[in-house]
UniProtKB/TrEMBL annotation:
Transmembrane segments annotated in the record for this chain: none
Domain named Transposase IS66 central: residues: 4-269
Organism: Candidatus Viridilinea halotolerans
Pfam (any one): DDE_Tnp_IS66
Protein name per Swiss-Prot or TrEMBL: IS66 family transposase
UniProt xrefs under InterPro entries: Transposase-related, Transposase_IS66_central
Length: 315
C-alpha cells in the first residue's frame, strides 16, 4: 500500500537522481520544492530512498543468483565508508548482469558471499590473496595490473631494473598479439602458436630472477605460482587478459563515494549497492532505468512480485 503523499514516480525519481546522478539529499529537497512545489524534508528524502531500496531487494537477489551461475565473472573491490566503519565495495561483472555488495572486508569470506561453493565458472581478477581460494585453472590474472607492477619496478631503479624492463617488453608483446587477435588479424590457433616463445622467455627469465633476492624476485615467485592463471585467455573463449570490465563498473561507485563521502548506515549501504546493481545491469541491456524503478516501487507497494530485471538466459 502506498504511504503518504508521494507516488512511485517521485520515489523512483529521487532514487534515480541520488543513486544514478549523485545529487545530494539537500539538492533533492531543493529540486522537488522548486519544480513541483512539494513540501519535503531531508528526512523524507532519506525515507523514500529506503522505500526504493526495499523495492529493489528482489532484483539484487536475482542478480546475485545469476552471477553465481555465470560462465565467467570479473571481480574487483574498492574502499568505502559507512559512518566510522571502512567496508569494501565489491563488484562482480558477468556477461548479462553486474552485482555490487558492500562488505566488511576484502578476504575469502567476502568473495564467497558473491561466489559461493556452487560457483564453477572462471574468475578474472587481480592477485589479491582472497582469490587464491579459486583454482588457478579457473582464474585469469589481470595483465594490466601486472604491467603496472613491472613498470613501477623499472621506474624505481636498482639492480633489478634490466630484468624488469625485459619482462615488461615481453608483457607488451602479449598485449600486441592479443590486440591482433581481437581485431581479427589472427585466429586463436595462431595466437597460441605465436605466444609460445613469449611464454617460454618469460618463464625462463622469472625462474632466474626469483632467486636473485631483490625487489623483483617476490613478484616473479608469485607469478610462477599463478602461471596457469596468466594464460587462461589463450584457451577459453570469452576470457580477456585484463580486469577492465570490473574496473569500469567501479568508476560510478568511486565518483559516488568521492561526492558523498560514503554512507552513514547499513540501510544507506544497501541502497547504494542495490541502485548500482540495477543501474549497471539495466545499462548492460540498454534498458531504461527510470521505468524499471517505477515498476519495482509500484509492485512493492501493491505487494506484488517484483518485475524481472534479467532476460531468461541468465548472467
Amino acid at each position: 500500500m502506498q504511504p503518504g503523499a508521494f507516488g512511485p514516480r517521485l520515489v523512483a525519481l529521487i532514487a534515480l537522481l541520488h543513486g544514478r546522478y549523485r545529487l545530494s539529499d539537500r539538492e533533492l529537497v531543493d529540486l522537488v520544492q522548486m519544480v513541483w512545489q512539494l513540501p519535503i524534508s531531508v528526512g523524507s528524502v532519506c525515507h523514500l530512498q529506503q522505500v526504493a531500496s526495499a523495492a529493489l531487494a528482489p532484483a539484487q537477489a536475482e542478480v546475485q543468483a545469476a552471477i553465481a551461475e555465470a560462465d565467467h565473472v570479473h571481480v574487483d573491490e574498492t574502499s568505502w565508508r559507512e559512518g566510522t566503519r571502512r567496508p569494501w565495495l565489491w563488484v562482480a561483472v558477468g556477461t548479462m548482469a553486474t552485482l555490487f555488495l558492500i562488505q566488511m572486508g576484502r578476504g575469502k569470506v567476502q568473495l564467497q558471499a558473491i561466489l559461493d561453493a556452487t560457483f564453477t565458472g572462471r574468475v578474472i581478477s587481480d592477485r589479491l590473496a582472497a582469490y587464491h581460494s579459486i583454482p588457478t585453472e579457473r582464474r585469469q590474472v589481470c595483465w594490466a595490473h601486472l604491467i603496472r607492477n613491472l613498470r613501477s619496478r623499472v621506474e624505481s631503479k636498482g639492480r633489478w631494473q634490466a630484468d624488469a624492463a625485459d619482462l615488461l617488453a615481453l608483457a607488451d608483446l602479449v598485449f600486441a598479439l592479443w590486440e591482433r587477435f581481437r581485431e581479427g588479424a589472427i585466429d586463436r590457433a595462431t595466437l597460441q602458436a605465436m605466444m609460445q616463445p613469449i611464454q617460454q622467455a618469460m618463464w625462463e627469465r622469472m625462474q632466474i630472477v626469483k632467486h636473485d633476492g631483490h625487489y623483483l624476485s617476490s613478484l616473479c615467485s608469485e607469478l610462477l605460482r599463478l602461471w596457469d592463471a596468466l594464460w587462461t585467455f589463450l584457451e577459453v573463449e570469452g576470457i580477456e587478459p585484463t580486469n577492465n570490465a570490473a574496473e569500469r563498473a567501479l568508476r560510478p561507485a568511486v565518483l559516488w563515494r568521492k561526492g558523498s563521502y560514503g554512507t552513514q548506515s547499513d540501510g544507506g549501504s544497501r541502497f547504494v549497492e542495490r541502485m548500482l546493481t540495477v543501474s549497471a545491469t539495466c545499462q548492460q541491456h540498454e534498458r531504461p532505468l527510470f521505468p524499471y524503478l517505477i515498476a519495482a516501487i509500484t509492485a512493492y507497494w501493491a505487494n506484488q512480485p517484483a518485475p524481472k530485471l534479467l532476460p531468461s538466459e541468465g548472467a
